[in-house]
Amino acid sequence: MKFYILTLFPEMVMQGLSTSIIGRATEKGILSIEAINIRDYTADKHKKVDDYPYGGGAGMVMQAQPIYDAWLSVVERVGHHVRTVYLTPQGRTFSQSDAKDFAGEENLILLCGHYEGVDERVLEEIVTDYVSIGDYVLTGGELPAMVMVDAISRMVPGVLSNKVSGETESFEDGLLEYPQYSRPEEWKGKKVPAIILSGDHGKVDAWRHEQSLLRTRDRRPDLLEKASLTQKDREFLEKHQ
Ligand code: ADE
């Protein structure tokens, strides 16, 4: 999958996405991440990319021309229509199912805004999806773009090992993950639950599922309402108030 990130701060996004799992997948050629500097496409002789808002108001607005030309350079290279995301608090909230959906694209353009906003006309012209990463306002779209690239990438086949990829399915079931433990068996007087050490996989799986149920009810009751619970799950929760 190829990501094209249109930004005024290419170093920021490339640095953030060059390590760990995403960095490794890029090195292996499973992913390609390219940051395109919008400033390189300005027709202004002083390399300006923003101007005062018509009608007045605080701050500056990113102009249409450099963004459009940067976007067009990608679309022309790809040779056809490319889904184009504008990161904005005004978008729909990004979710795991969106990550899975975007992971089906071969190419994806992410437009990072800055300052007070972007000239509406270029958004109308190029944007297919308005996406927010949550109800708070950041200084720019770079961190949200990095969040999206990370979450989408781990849904691209081959980025995670087969063993881990199933974990996402459990979140998609609508439940939070169970607690995890590693060595030592006792730390600061706290023991790993005996059932985990029992070696009985059936019991371990059942215990983990129960922990997922309890944890989801405790921390994210909103998710529990949407989760598909069995009669046995309901009875278990009923018994463990
Ligand atoms: N740009 C600024 N804040 C944002 C947010 N919460 N989500 C996406 N893009 C943004």
Would you kindly provide a written description of the structure presented here, covering whatever features stand out?
There is one protein chain. The chain has 241 residues and is α/β, with parallel strands linked by helices. Helix content is 44%, strand content 17%. The protein contains eleven helices and nine strands. The protein has helices at 10-16, 20-28, 64-78, 96-102, 120-126, 142-153, 162-172, 194-197, 201-219, 221-226, 231-239; strands at 2-7, 32-37, 50-51, 61-62, 84-93, 107-112, 129-132, 186-187, 190-191. It has a five-stranded parallel beta sheet with strand order 2-1-6-5-7, with helices on both faces. Strands 3-4 form a two-stranded antiparallel ribbon. A two-stranded antiparallel ribbon has the order 8-9. Helix 3 runs parallel beside helix 5 and helix 4 crosses helix 6 (142-153). It is elongated. The model has no long low-confidence stretch (mean pLDDT 95). Adenine binds at residues 87-89, 132-134, 136-138, 141, 144.
